[in-house]
Amino acid sequence: FTEAKHAYYAAESRVLLGLSDTETTEAVVAAAHAYQDRGTDYWAYGDEAGTQCNVALVHLHADALDGAADALRPVLDLPPAQRNKGIVVSAGRVATTLTNSPARTSVLARELR
Description:
Layout: H1 3-16, H2 22-34, H3 45-61, H4 65-76, H5 85-99, H6 107-112
Helix pairs in contact: 1-2, 1-3, 2-3, 3-4, 3-5
């Protein structure tokens, strides 16, 4: 794996384990940052979307709905043809977390679901 993919998988592992500490947040942000440059040889829209979903989850765990929405918006804006199973699963994790969030009844939360 490339360093970027390793960072993505390591960060996602921490998120899936339910860790929401500073180390997890830093790992998730670093992984997302690695996929911001679409000109790299390793860039893939699915990996970028996955990292953005992880950023959204970290924000939701911190009760930061606006940050979660900002992270998730590019994923939700993907054309249907690019919404592969991995992206759908990652976005589904965000939806599940959002459903269990104290912010679940807010207008923004309803828009994201």
